[in-house]
Specification:
Blueprint lengths: L1 H25 L5 E5 L6 H17 L3 E5 L7 H8 L7 E6 L6 H4 L7 H4 E17 L7 H10 L4 E5 L5 H13 L3 E5 L3 H9 L5 E5 H9 L3 E6 L25 E9 L4 H15 L2 H10 L2 E4 L2 H22 L5
Parallel strand pairs: 1-2, 1-3, 5-6, 5-7
Antiparallel strand pairs: 3-9, 4-7, 4-8, 4-9, 4-10
Length: about 325
């Protein structure tokens, strides 16, 4: 009996060593599904469709985009991927909430992003812009802050929903500037921007991909960008840091992850294919037209960014006492 166990133990390692690279060579062996936890038409959905097309060509395999909106800030679709078979055939393409802040905000988040999702690559980075209704009586970030301090309760900021990037960035702005801002959550960016355009709400933080056309056509005022530097799409718009809020950064980023436990050779193969896709001239052009910057980078770089962003937003959430009960 003991002899039998020893023989099995001997064979275990070489077999695993043989099959793991073979796994990656055979991948993908059937259609790949990219789950987008938001409705069709948004930035995450567009990025997923561009990438799916490229991957399908690269792999000569069907790649489908599956929109699964619902749950808090993308938690439903992200949770489905976190609990899917860890074989690389089910992927998540989401904005940063699923990778960072959702787990800090929602007690019922059905997964731990740092353990249950395997990072592959960041695909797109889009600065958040602070925009105001066209006829607002302030035209720069310092003017807005002064107005909101002088008129407590008068400035209402829209967000894409409780716990969304727009909500957190608005609370972050109020925290560091002393501006008195009233949060008005909506069900997504589209209805919030519509009310901002109609003049029913005052300001909003939203990704450049959602509001760039309105700023260019002067239907909304751009007051600041949350990027670390100015955005090439609106080079005349100063950053929040340039306007007196040192270290203020809020960017929207989108990334692809596989279920936690997906074998490393498959992750590396996925990451390389996604990097090639997002750095292709066609996708670079499409992202640039939206005002976004193409991503790239390794699984390790994405994992490090997830950890640092989670820690940074945890400090802000704790200091601003944000809860989403």
């Amino acid at each position: 009996m003991g002899h039998h166990i020893t023989r099995r133990a001997c064979f275990a390692v070489p077999l695993r060593a043989l099959t793991t690279p073979a796994l990656a060579q055979d991948f993908p062996s059937r259609p790949v599904r990219i789950v987008v936890p938001f409705p069709a038409g948004g930035a995450a959905d567009l990025a997923a469709r561009w990438i799916a097309q490229k991957l399908a060509t690269t792999w000569s395999q069907t790649v489908v985009v599956d929109n699964r909106p619902g749950g808090a800030n993308g938690n439903l679709g992200a949770g489905q991927v976190a609990h899917a078979a860890p074989d690389g055939h089910t992927l998540l393409l989401s904005s940063s909430g699923a990778f960072t802040t959702n787990a800090l905000l929602y007690r019922d988040t059905p997964f731990d992003p740092l353990h249950d999702l395997a990072p592959t690559s960041i695909v797109m980075v889009a600065p958040n812009l602070l925009v105001a209704r066209a006829e607002a009586p302030y035209h720069t970030l310092p003017e807005l802050i002064a107005y909101a301090r002088a008129n407590p309760g008068a400035v209402r900021y829209a967000s894409q929903g409780v716990g969304s990037t727009g909500h957190l960035t608005g609370a972050y702005l109020a925290l560091v500037s002393g501006a008195d801002l009233v949060h008005v959550p909506y069900r997504g960016s589209v209805p919030a921007v519509a009310d901002l355009l109609a003049g029913n709400i005052d300001i909003m933080w939203d990704t450049i991909t959602s509001v760039l056309p309105h700023v260019r056509e002067a239907r909304l005022q751009g007051l600041a960008t949350g990027g670390a530097g100015r955005t090439p799409a609106l080079p005349g718009l100063p950053t929040a840091a340039e306007q007196g809020l040192a270290d203020f950064v809020s960017v929207g980023w989108f990334a692809v992850a596989a279920p936690g436990g997906t074998p490393l050779p498959i992750i590396e193969r996925l990451s390389a294919a996604i990097r090639d896709a997002v750095q292709s001239p066609e996708i670079v052009r499409q992202m640039t037209e939206l005002g976004a910057l193409p991503g790239g980078g390794t699984p390790e770089a994405m994992a490090g960014y997830m950890r640092s962003e989670t820690a940074r937003w945890k400090r802000i959430i704790d200091q601003a006492n944000i809860s989403v009960n």
